[in-house]
Design goal:
By secondary structure, the protein is of the alpha/beta class. The protein has one domain: Aldolase class I (TIM Barrel, Alpha-Beta Barrel), CATH 3.20.20. An eight-stranded parallel sheet has the order 7-6-5-4-3-2-1-8. Helix 1 packs parallel to helix 11, helix 5 packs parallel to helix 7 and helix 7 crosses helix 8. The protein is globular, with a radius of gyration of 17 Å.
Length: about 260
């Protein structure tokens, strides 16, 4: 399968920014800008408290809504948590799992991340699985060992059919919120490696259909450099996703090139 057969995807991660009252004006402006864009898939991942507002404003549009996290427990006495079935029942399509901020600030390890992935997929959600190395790990020349462990751990217990609802996002920790950006060649090298790990485990058909994003200080100015790469199918963006014009500019750049 050639890259042009994979639908490009741009996902915005608002993190803990903006207010519920800002969701509607943001959504209306983005939809006005993106009218007619059907080939690319756009996803807006907002805090839990903003999900109902986001689902309402984007209802009937081509823009999907995602959550930024999900509980590792299916249900029960876990005050403050939100489970996968609750997200699905609400109408959420995507959920981000394994973001470096969850790994580093909230001590989420590969086993917990795998549990979340499996629960989310069992509930019918699509998952965006984040992987990436720290600056220290890159300097130690263990980037690929780290990425292989994260990818294999996240996919443990899954079959090839489940990967139809899986998107990977390569987010080098040293390039998230730092203003430092990986070069397009560095990003492509790792994204190609991720596809190779999946190919070895699930076969060429599954690997060739897998969408892999780059995330890490992606802006309208540098997005095209990444989208030109054969194994990069879009972006998971942070700061630029808070501005509908910047988000749309990146979406505009995400049209795959013929190869």
């Amino acid at each position: 399968m050639k890259k042009k057969s994979r639908r490009p995807i741009v996902a915005g991660n608002w993190k803990m920014n903006l207010l519920p009252s800002q969701v509607r004006p943001f959504g209306e402006e983005l939809m006005a800008l993106a009218a007619g864009f059907h080939r690319q898939e756009a996803v807006v991942c907002v805090p839990f408290v903003m999900l109902p507002a986001a689902l309402k404003v984007f209802e009937g549009s081509d823009i999907s809504v995602g959550a930024q996290n999900v509980s590792e427990n299916p249900r029960g006495a876990f005050t403050g948590e939100v489970c996968a079935d609750q997200l699905r029942d609400l109408g959420v399509k995507y959920v981000i799992i394994g973001h470096s901020e969850r790994r580093t600030l909230f001590d989420e390890d590969d086993i917990r991340i795998n549990t979340k992935v499996r629960l989310a997929l069992d509930a019918g959600l699509h998952v965006i699985i984040c992987v990436g190395e720290t600056a220290e790990q890159r300097n130690m020349d263990v980037t690929f060992e780290v990425i292989m462990l994260q990818v294999k751990s996240a996919l443990y217990g899954l079959d090839g059919d489940a990967l139809k609802r899986v998107v990977f996002a390569y987010e080098p920790v040293w390039a998230i919120g730092t203003g430092v950006t990986a070069t397009s060649d560095q990003a492509e090298e790792v994204c190609s490696f991720i596809r190779g790990v999946v190919r070895a485990k699930f076969g060429a058909r599954v690997a060739n259909g897998l969408r892999i994003l780059y995330g890490g200080s992606v802006t309208p100015e540098n997005a095209d450099d990444f989208f030109l790469m054969p194994d990069i199918d879009g972006a998971l963006i942070g700061g630029a996703s808070l501005d509908p014009h910047k988000f749309f500019s990146i979406l505009e750049e995400s049209e795959n090139n013929e190869d």
